[in-house]
Design brief:
about 400 residues, alpha+beta, 4-stranded mixed β-sheet, 4-stranded antiparallel β-sheet, binds flavin-adenine dinucleotide
């Protein structure tokens, strides 16, 4: 495996490094540098404008729709350089990572022209309406239905676990548009405005008092006939594309955030003198090895993609299963190392829109960084498809094992 980058990629790396050095605030990344409260809010607002001017938001998207048309390797270099200095990238997960790339792959020209510029500029926000009370792992059992009425779809049904539905302008949802065919067929992928009568969002309160996800009820909710992505009754394939993006996201550079967090855990072990405990040392060595495996698998994904030998769904499934299980193990170890200290809430409770982890804290329950990560890691083997389901995909599609038996219909 050749781990060196081509000269053009290194030239691009220098361009990004120079840009970051010129645009990040003075002292960024130095020990003791911290932005709090209003300073942080001002920085975030300004930083989004600066990123947009630099063209670095969704920079791999085609220039004709407002992106920069970066190649895959340039995109990886961009991610690496931002991660290296801990510079935030806009974290609109649903628009930037899921629905935007799906519309680019499957959407009509009109859909691309309408939605892509609005996603890039951040003028619309999104949520994902796949799961239902009886359709999670078995997503194709979904019951929400959409029927044509003139030039509009009329949607009725219920979604659950819908993250950020209370803020979203649009939902990309799966609805049954033909109930008389096999369940994977007869599903369509619709782009539905959220701010309209008939959409009822009921937040689900979590143990820390925050409400990150919701139940969403649809009663005669409407969207234009043309808001079907990838064709009527073809929604299953389109949804698998979105899930591929969800599971494969960060497969090449994701190890960096785990390495950074592990460095933090090791520093805590040293501070508390736990680094002399043989079991802690073994746990840290195991965690370090797993982060290295992620790094090397990241290079493997990249090499595969560059040579078009890419089996995105399988690699995405393997990556999602591996990192989510690693993360729970590493944070269990962190909490063991911290002992009673790990149970004292020492965070600020401040939200930071550019730092996804900060979503987990709130004023009345101020978890610190490791505690936030510990709590959220419990959900990581579930969202985007559970670890068991990823194992089924790897077993069937990578190893070619017999298909899982299905109950008789
Ligand atoms: C934090 C969080 C955010 C989420 N955000 C969203 C969102 O924004 N939009 C959205 O649509 N969904 C969202 N989800 C839902 C998520 O996609 C589902 O929870 C997930 O797909 C699992 O479905 P389920 O909860 O119905 O569990 P079930 O499918 O009922 O599974 C229960 C258990 O059975 C196991 N199991 C089920 N089938 C099999 C099988 N065939 N083989 C082996 N084991 C099996 C599962 O692995 C699991 O352990 C979110 C979930 C979480 C936790």
């Amino acid at each position: 495996m050749d781990l060196t980058y081509p000269p053009e990629a290194e030239a691009f790396r220098k361009e990004i490094r120079d840009w970051l050095a010129q645009n990040l605030p003075e002292g960024w990344g130095q020990p003791g540098f911290r932005l709090v409260g209003d300073q942080r809010r001002q920085f975030n607002a300004q930083w989004i404008r600066t990123l947009r001017q630099g063209g670095w938001i969704c920079a791999s998207w085609p220039a004709e729709y407002g992106g920069k048309g970066l190649s895959l390797i340039e995109q990886v270099v961009l991610n690496e350089e931002f991660a290296r200095v801990d510079a935030p990238m806009r974290a609109d997960f649903f628009g930037d990572t899921l629905v935007g790339p799906t519309i680019l792959q499957w959407g009509t020209e009109e859909q691309k022209r309408e939605f892509i510029p609005q996603i890039l500029s951040g003028t619309i926000s999104w949520c994902q309406g796949f799961s239902e009370p009886d359709a999670g792992s078995d997503l194709a059992s979904l019951k929400t239905r959409a029927e044509l009425d003139g030039d509009e779809w009329v949607v009725n049904g219920q979604k659950v676990w819908t993250t950020q539905a209370q803020f979203a302008d649009y939902i990309f949802l799966l609805a049954r548009t033909d109930p008389d065919v096999e369940k994977h067929q007869g599903i369509s992928y619709l782009l539905v405005p959220m701010k309209q009568p008939g959409v009822e969002v009921r937040p689900i309160q979590q143990i820390d008092g925050s409400s990150e996800f919701n139940e969403v009820f649809f009663t005669n909710v409407r969207c234009p006939k043309d808001n079907v992505v990838g064709g009527v009754n073809n929604g299953w394939k389109v949804a698998m594309t979105t899930l591929g993006f969800e599971r494969g996201a960060s497969s090449t550079t994701g190890h960096r955030r785990f390495q950074k967090e592990l460095d933090h855990i090791i520093a805590e072990a040293r501070r508390l003198g736990r680094d002399r405990d043989p079991l802690v040392r073994q746990g840290l060595a195991r965690a370090w090895s797993k982060v290295k495996i992620m790094q090397i698998n990241g290079y493997r994904s990249l090499t595969d993609a560059l040579h078009s030998t890419h089996h995105a769904a399988a690699l995405g499934a393997m990556h999602k299963m591996f990192w989510s299980e690693y993360h729970q193990e590493a944070l269990d170890l962190a909490e063991d190392i911290l002992g009673l200290e790990g149970q004292v809430l020492t965070g600020t409770g401040e939200r930071d829109e550019l730092d996804p982890l900060s979503r987990r804290g709130r004023a009345g329950y101020p978890v610190n960084e490791l505690q936030a990560s510990f709590f959220f890691s419990r959900s990581e083997t579930i969202w985007g498809g559970t670890a068991e389901i990823q194992r089924n995909i790897v077993g069937e599609r990578v190893l070619g094992l017999a298909k899982e038996p299905k109950p008789a219909r």
